[in-house]
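Usage

Read records sequentially. Each one opens with the input sequence:
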Amino acid sequence: MSTDSVVRTAVVVEDDADIRGLLTLTLSMNGFTIFEAANGKDGLDLIREHQPDLITLDLNLPDIDGMEVCRQIRPHTDAYIIMVTARAEEIDQVIGLEIGADDFITKPFSPREVRARISAMFRRPRRSAEDQPAAPATVSEEADADVVVHGSLAVDIEGRVASLHGEELPLTRIEFDLLATLISGPRRVWTRETLLAKIWGEGWTNDQHLVEVHIRNLRKKLGEDTREPRFIKTVRGVGYRLVPVS
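and closes with the structure output:
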């Protein structure tokens, strides 16, 4: 984790007292101020009250399912969300990522694993000036210089807003970062490994499913037909690139 003086907050939502204690201790040792909840309702209240930087959500809560908690809070928070589950089935991971979770940790887990995941996330908490694309594809003469236009798609890098045919797209933080990265090099083929390193941080090369699921979600919001994509084309066995503007 960063050693700077920024105080970060986390909400741990977990009904198992031992696991809640382990997560709280691990996060506290990494400089977080922690708020704990043993059920979904209390977790929602704490998240709304404290607007944390990080949220850990148990999948099987006694009242509100962790997926439903994630679904309710994602439109209103930019926090990183880690789902904690005893079920390792891929369908749980896919559903969680589709509703806005950033990562999954499967029980049992080690404090070292939690620290590694969180450190990778917070190396790049938000797109900064250094991370902004240096060479936009096409810039509208009437638009601000930070607005990149690709056909009917416009991406305001600094404002973190993407619009299609003038209508703002309801993108999550990761979906926006993926789109902004792709549009920064429209003729480049972006490998899954490169996207993982750029958006999630180093050390995530074994989590290519994260890219695939978030790209799929992004395509849905762009109204894509994967058989005849207008914006994002899969380069088989390599990664993704933007479809050239005709």
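Summary fields computed downstream for this record:
- DSSP finds eight helices and twelve strands in the chain.
- The chain has two domains: 8-122, 129-242.
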